[in-house]
Amino acid sequence: MSTIKIADSSDQGRWDAFVISKKDAGPYHLFAWKNAIEFAYHHSAYYLIEEDESNKIRGIFPLVHVKAPALRGTLVSLPFCDYGGVLTSSSNTSAELIQYSIDLAMSLKARLELRYKHPEEALSKSQEFGVLSQKVRMVLNLPEGSDNLWNAFKSKLRSQINRPQKDGLEFKLGSLDLLDDFYTVFRLNMRNLGSPVHSRIWISSVLELFGSSSHVGVVYNENKPVAAGIILEFRDKVSVPWASSLIEYSKLSPNMLLYWGFLRFASDNGFKLFDFGRSTPGEGTYKFKEQWGATPFPLYWYAQDFIDQKEPSLFGGKVRQFIETTWSRLPQAFVDRLGPIIRRYITL
User: Fold this and answer.
1) Fewer CB in a 10 Å sphere around the end CB: N or C, the chain?
2) Where do the domains of the chain lie?
3) Beta-bridge mates of residue 227
4) pLDDT tens per residue across span 256-291
5) Is 3.40.630.30 the CATH classification of the domain at 3-135+300-311?
6) Diameter of the chain by CA atoms?
7) Beta strand pairing status for 57-66 and 87-88?
8) How confident is the model over 217-225, as a mean pLDDT?
């Protein structure tokens, strides 16, 4: 006999211990992601735990209800990252937790979106769910030590990494001490891409709550930040949730130095995998990550709607098209203020 409950703060220690024990887990499954979302964006999180008779955890399922005012929102596992999903060794437990999420979405009158990095049998067989994403994760196997990694690169790639260093660019790795420089690059780049930017408090919350497992990397040109990113450690893997560079400095290839700095850190500190994050096959970011030797792994994002398909979406159709086509032409001060207000409701 098992029971399902919604986790509270007292469950954080055993939740994280269970997450760390599961091979399909990632940094986003940790309780820190929940705490950051609740603190920075005030969304309602439903972190499900299924227990046996002795209160031993059989499975967990992190869910967040991302709801804009006057709309029904999306119950998603998980927002603002590549994957979430059920963690368990039991197909029965997985099915029970998924059914609970369906019932919860129905009670909230919310759209249900479940993101996995591997196919989920119960969802793949269901006629009620469809796969949303054609995106892939780009993952690189790391050798022991950056010297071995460097020697495995093709000469063209090594020259691309050397070029920004010869031009005087410098890479620094830190944490909250580099937050301001990261966010400067991040907000400018997001405007250029036509996308609302995450709030500074969201980024700082992630860094604070992940603690020593999070790092900020910044590339400088004459003391000006021109490329920046964040990495999260989890077991033997390093993941990149966000990275940006300034388009006006693209000829100096600061992105090459940024990722080499991250990869060098990861390989020299014994990590075995480097997750570049999601991309669309054939597009520019995909090709950039592919040149490092990264292998694509499909993402499986399943969606089910319990509401009228004609209900207006805050970021669907013409609204989203308007944002994408006009955002980069708006004044920087305006998008800096408005962007985070909008971005908190975009689950991507």
Assistant:
1) N
2) 3-135+300-311, 143-271
3) 219, 245
4) 999 999 999 999 999 999 999 999 999 999 999 999
5) yes
6) 65
7) antiparallel
8) 98
